[in-house]
Structure formats: C-alpha cells, structure tokens
Amino acid sequence: MKKPALPLLVVTDLDGSLLDHDTYSFRPAMPALACLRQLGIPCILNSSKTFDEMLLLRDKLNNTDPFVCENGGAVFIPRENGKGFNSEMTGSSYNSILKTLNELRQYGYHFRGFNDMTATEVAAVTGLTSDDALMAKHRHASEPILWQDNDERLDEFMSALACHNLRLLRGGRFLHVMGMNDKSEAVTFFKDYYEKLWDESLDVVALGDGDNDLSMLEAADYPIVIPGASQTLSPENPATRTADKHGPAGWNDTLLALLNELTKEATRV
C-alpha cells in the first residue's frame, strides 16, 4: 500500500456518525470519503457490528481498507491477493465467551443470548430481517444477551464475568458480554500497523457519537465528536472538534475542514 499524501489515518464509528441514525444513509459524507480516497488515507470502520454486517457495509461504501468488529474485539485486514482476510483477536474469542456463559448458568443466572436463539427469534427481538439476523448471529468477539433476572443478580453476574476477564457493555436493548477490549483498540493497533508499513509516524483522526466511542476519541490525535441524539461527548483532548450537524453531514463537514487545514499546513512546511 502506497503512503498517503498526508501521514494520517481515519478511524470511524458507523451508526449515528458516518451513517444516518435512522436511514443508514452515508450520502452526505461522500465528498469527504472521496477526499480520503484521493489522498490515499485509509478509513478504518470501527463498529459494534459483526463481520458479515461490516462486509455488506464496506461494499456499499466502496471501502477496501481494514476494519474492526464488535467494539474492538476483532480486527480484519484484507490479504494482498484480494482473497479473504487476516484476522487478529484483540479481545476474548466468541467460543471462550460462550464457554464462560455456560459455566455461569450453573449458578442459576437467567439470561438468553443470540447463540441460544434461532435467526427467527433474533429477528423478532431486534426488528432485523431474517437475513440480517443471520449476520448478527455470526459473531467473533461478543455475545448480546437479554437479562432475565433481577438487578441484584446482575451485579453478581458482572463480578463473576470479571473473574473470567470479561465485562458487560450496556446497549439499548441488550447487554453485550465481551473481553476487556474497547474501540480504542483500533486506534492503537492500526497506528502501529501503518507506521510500520509506511516507516513513518502518523496521526489518527477518530469520529464517533456514542458512549462506546469515547475511548476511541480519547486515543486519537484529532477527535471529532458527532453530536448524539441525547448528548455530546467531551473527550479530554484540546484538539477535539465537535460537528455542527448530526450524522454523516456533520461527519463530512468537520472532517473536510480538518483535511483542508492539514493539507495547507503540509504545503507550508
């Protein structure tokens, strides 16, 4: 892979950031995406989505760069021959998570995970289509569960998971059982990966809108906060920029402005 015109890497959240929260459209972000391609800057998609879901989105976005699934739990890098991916687990494997959950069931905890459900059941509880539910069931590094016990038992359950080096991430409807990884893994992993590949130091731009994006934003050199539906994140970095618009429109405008500034600075050096 050739060095980009700017020693830069972009790592981005999807839903509510590059993709519209309601329509999943990325059309308003197309000018910035085109600019990244022109400059040769990789755009790393970093989402809670599964591998199969990400493949579909990459195809729609015409994105051929590496990507990260399940909140930093699994990294996928396209092979040079164009056939398949090299993968790296930065969190706990799916099989080890399921093994721990089955062990904890013996202590009377009541919950139901995607692995316990058919695709039809997953579709019913998520609102996904049957095809999308199948993709959501194909997991590498996390298990969404519906908690069917009381809050006191949930606290005990979280402590038990911690003893197995696992944790819970609260989502809208589900609790996600996963390793100790988070979305910042993508920043540190790919900063090191591309610096070795290009033999050059680089900066990372990260864009996100949700609580699970905060660690990623704080690990970046240039954090860009996309306003969320109910809140705006505040990374502890003086270089933080906050978009004026929600979703892909804010993603586009703020990233383009930063790229223009950095390009001008580079030409003055």
Series of H and E elements: EHEHEEEHEHHEHEEHEHEEH
Query: What structural class should be given to the helix and strand makeup?
Result: alpha/beta
CATH architecture of the largest domain: 3-Layer(aba) Sandwich
Give a quick account of the main beta sheet: strands, pairing sense, barrel closure: 8 strands, mixed
Question: Mean pLDDT across all residues, rounded?
Answer: 93
Strand order of the largest sheet: 5-4-3-2-1-10-11-12
Kindly state the percentage of residues in helix: 25-40%
Q: What is the CA-based Rg, rounded? A: 19 Å
Distance between the termini: 25 Å
Oligomer: single chain
How are the SSEs placed, and which strands pair?
Layout lengths: L7 E5 L17 H10 L3 E4 L4 H11 L5 E3 L4 E5 L6 E5 L4 H12 L5 E3 L5 H8 L3 H8 L4 E6 L3 H13 L3 E4 L4 E4 L5 H15 L4 E6 L5 H6 L2 E4 L15 E2 L4 H22 L1
Parallel strand pairs: 1-2, 1-10, 2-3, 10-11, 11-12
Antiparallel strand pairs: 3-4, 4-5, 6-7, 7-9, 8-9
Give a verbal description of the structure.
- Helix 1 (30-39) packs parallel to helix 9 (247-268) and helix 4 (119-126) packs across helix 5 (130-137).
- The chain has helices at residues 30-39, 51-61, 94-105, 119-126, 130-137, 151-163, 184-198, 214-219, 247-268, and strands spanning 8-12, 43-46, 67-69, 74-78, 85-89, 111-113, 142-147, 167-170, 175-178, 203-208, 222-225, 241-242.
- Helix 1 (30-39) links the parallel strand 1 and strand 2.
- It has two domains: 8-90 and 182-268, HAD superfamily/HAD-like (Rossmann fold); 94-178, Threonyl-tRNA Synthetase, Chain A, domain 2.
- The strands form two sheets. An eight-stranded mixed β-sheet has the order 5-4-3-2-1-10-11-12, with helices on both faces. Strands 6-7-9-8 form a four-stranded antiparallel β-sheet, covered by helices on one side.
- It is built from nine helices and twelve strands.
- The two termini are 25 Å apart.
- With 269 residues, it is an alpha/beta fold.
